[in-house]
Amino acid sequence: MAVNDNYTDCTVLIYDEEDNFLSATRVTEHDKAHMLLAVDRLPAVRDGVSLRLLVLANPTPCEYKGRIVRIGKDREIAIYNGKEKEQRQGVRHKIDMPAQIDSVVEHGAKKHVTPPIDVKILNISTNGIRVQADSSVLQLEKVFHLRMKIGDNDQEVIAMVVNSVQKEDGKEDYGCRILSVE
Fold first, then answer.
1. By 3-state DSSP, what share of the chain in percent is helix, strand and coil, each rounded to 5?
2. Above 70 in pLDDT, residue 87?
3. pTM of the predicted model, to two decimals?
């Protein structure tokens, strides 16, 4: 995967090498020539530590490895390819983050859901997202818009279609394909 988009203003989810979620933040500057990302808030790790990054780019997320490097007085993330492939198309990253479903697409028209449906994002990959909600609130093959809060004021909206449902303890886990990041 090559860096082919400008990721400035995109959300980036940052994980350590063991896939522990470290932070969700916003890309403030993307230097494509040097493959560097400047972000709002760096995770509290030392320079040189290997990271895994999931950039929520429009229209689809992109995945990279990276390291925090010093450029003069600044600390940035140097990104590079080289992730080992799993059997699936996108590596799942655990996240455990609250979010809301705020609209559904019916007959080609976007309709707002009032009140929004509270969900928990369990994991995310370059092409999918797994959310958990109360029983029977989402329907298979429906397109929903998920709103997740990043930082104090920033929000990311992901359009997704529900592909699978697993029931457990009065809750349901919904496997969804990401259609776009808006």
1. 0, 65, 35
2. no
3. 0.66
